Amino acid sequence: MSNKLQAKDLINLGLFTVLYFVIGCCVAIPIGFVPIFLPILGALWSLITGIPFMLFLTRVKKFGMVTIMGILSGLLMGLTGMGFWGVPMGVIFGLLGDLILKSGGYKSAKKSLIGYAVFSLWMVGTYIPMYFMVEDSWASFAASFGEEYADRVMAVMPMWSIILVIAGIFIFAILGGLLGKALLKKHFAKAGIV
Known about the structure:
The chain is mainly alpha-helical. It has one domain. The chain is built from 11 helices and no strands. α1 (7-32) runs antiparallel to α2 (38-48), α3 (50-57) crosses α10 (161-183) and α8 (134-145) crosses α9 (147-155). It is elongated and about 55 Å long. The two termini are 21 Å apart.
């Protein structure tokens, strides 16, 4: 088996990235407009997207597929107006996820959970402006949704909460991965992931 990505791999990658992103948006769009939910949005995203990601892992047998998914997810998030910090985070955490999956020979259920949880940290990129570019973020929110909304967003995003955001994404990704594995048990067995 060739280690190079083939057309079939890229088609799977594209389809699963779209599925992953659309399912994530099904959570993000309805609750993203409520400021108090913004700190937990990444955690909820990683919980619900565990299902398509675990199905994606039954098709991943080559290094680089998770990294590319991370980059594409960051690009899609940027195109939806959340900034492009998800791209470098997608590179970093996608690559780390790929390395974890490869270390398990793409067959370890335990490493698939850890790999998914690490990969999911690309979502931290969407929070970077709110924590490190506060004035620009406030101005962007105010221009789009009004000053009252911008004030409420910044009130629920104090600097110390970044720790909770990161921990929430990681923990809920583990839960999402377990949910995905439970729902897709037959696919995992067929793919030889144990």
